[in-house]
Amino acid sequence: MSTGNMSEKHLHIISFDIPYPPNYGGVIDVFYKIRTLHELGVKIHLHCTEYPGRDRAPELEKYCSEVNYYHRRTGLLYALSPKPYIVESRKSEEMINRLLRDNHPVLFEGLHSCYYIDDPRLKDRIKIYRESNIEHRYYFNLFKVDKKFKSKFYFLLASLKLRLYQKVLKHADIMMAVSKKDTEYLKRHFRKNKVVHLPSFHANNSLSILPGRGDYALYHGNIEVPENEYAAKFLVTEVFNGSNMKLVIAGMNPPESTRNLVRQYPNVELIPNPNDNRMFELIREAQVNILVTFQATGLKLKLLNTLYNGRFCLVNEEMIKGTAVKELCEIGNSAAELREKLVLLFSRELTEEEKKQRIEVLRDNYDNISNGKRLIKLIF
C-alpha cells in the first residue's frame, strides 16, 4: 500500500490532548515520541483534541508538518452515549475528513482517540494503537479509591463502557503496549492482532544524579487524580506519621483535602504546581523518591524520570509490574516495610556501581532513539 512519496515517511498521530507542555504521564509519551520521530526524519501530521486548561502550543510546530486542533464535545449529551465519554467527546468530522486526504498510516494514542479506528473509510489504512493503560481497569480502580458518590458512579459506568468498547481494537494492525504486563493482556484478548511491547518515550537522554545526600523523601504526581491523592494520603498517615523523616509532596492541583491533611503533620510539606525546572530540582535533591501505586497499569513515567535524575527510588511492587527496572529500585509493600527501607536509605549514599547499573538497564530498555527506530520499522 502506498504511503506517499517513498523517500518520505508520513504518519498521522491522533492525540487525546495537546501534548505540550509534557507535564503528565500520557502526554509525556506522546510529546517525546513526536520529537524522537521528527529527529529520525518522519513527517508528523498531528491531530489534538483541545479543551479548557491547556493552550494551543506553537512549540509542536517545530516537530510536526502540521498541527490540527479540534474542540472536545463535553456535556451530558455525550456522556449518555453508549460509547465511552472519553471516546465520544473526541469525535470530529473535520478530523476524519483530514485523515481521508491521503493514505498515510494512523497512530491512535490511547483508547480515547479510537473513535475512527473501525471506520470503514479507513479499512485499507495501516492503523496503530498505542496503549498507555488498560483503561477499564484504570477507571475501575478510580471507582474503588474515590469517596464522592457522583464520581464513583461516573468511574464505574466509564469502566463498564470501556470494557465493552475495547473490542474495537481488533481493527488495529499493530498494538504497542507500554509495559510487559499490558502486552500480555492485549495478546490474550486479541490473539489475531500483532501486539508488541514498546516502552514509553520520555525526557531523559542520560543520567543526571547529584552526589552526596538529601534530607527529605519526595512523592510526586498529579494529586488531583484520585489514585495519586490516595497514595499521598497513605504515605502521610501510614508511613511518615510519627516519624522524624521529612516528606515533600509535589504535584499538580492538590485538592483541599490533601492540603488540610498536610497541615496536621509538621514533617510533611506540600508544593503545589511546581514548574518543570522546580520539579526536576526536587527529584534530584531528594534523598529518596518514594513512589507507590495501588494499581499496576501502564508504565509510570514518573518512575523513569526518578531513575534518570534521582538518588534512591523506593517503590511498591505494583509500581514496577511489567517493567525492566525492578533491580534499580528498593521495594517495600506495607507501611512498615517502607518505613524500614527509608531508615536504611537515609543513612546511605548511592554508589558508582549502582549508577553504572542504572545506565546499562535504562539504555538497554528505555532509550528513545532505539525505540523510535523500532517504531519506524514496525510501521513502515
In the predicted model, the low-confidence regions spanning at least 5 consecutive residues are none
Q: Work out the strand percent.
A: 15-25%
Regarding CATH, which class of the largest domain?
Alpha Beta
- Output the strand order for the largest sheet: 3-2-1-4-5-6-7
**Count of DSSP E strands?**
13
CATH topology of the largest domain: Rossmann fold
**Judging by the overall fold, what is the CATH architecture of the largest domain?**
3-Layer(aba) Sandwich
Instruction: Report, as a whole number of angstroms, the end-to-end distance.
Output: 10 Å
Overall pLDDT confidence = 93
Assign a percent range to the helix content: 25-40%
Radius of gyration, rounded? 21 Å
Order of helices and strands: EHEEHHHEEHHEHEEHEHEHEHEHEHHH
Instruction: Name the shape in a single word.
Output: globular
Number of domains: 2
- SSE class: alpha/beta
Largest sheet: 7 strands, parallel
Question: What is the CATH superfamily label of the largest domain?
Answer: Nucleotide-binding domain of ferredoxin-NADP reductase (FNR) module
User: Number of helical runs?
Assistant: 15
At a glance:
The protein is built from 15 helices and 13 strands. With 380 residues, it is of the alpha/beta class. The longest helix is centred in the middle third of the chain and has 17 residues.
Structure overview:
The protein contains 15 helices and 13 strands. The protein folds into 2 domains: 9-172, Nucleotide-binding domain of ferredoxin-NADP reductase (FNR) module (Rossmann fold), CATH 3.40.50.80; 217-365, 3-Layer(aba) Sandwich (Rossmann fold). A 7-stranded parallel beta sheet has the order 3-2-1-4-5-6-7, with helices on both faces. Strands 10-9-8-11-12-13 form a 6-stranded parallel beta sheet, with helices on both faces. It has helices spanning 25-39, 76-79, 85-88, 93-99, 135-145, 149-165, 180-189, 226-239, 256-263, 276-285, 301-309, 317-320, 335-345, 352-366, 368-379, and strands at residues 9-15, 42-50, 66-71, 106-109, 127-131, 174-177, 194-197, 217-220, 247-251, 268-272, 288-291, 312-315, 330-331. Helices cover 40% and strands 17% of the residues. α1 crosses α15 (368-379), α5 (135-145) packs antiparallel against α6 and α8 (226-239) crosses α13. The chain is of the alpha/beta class.
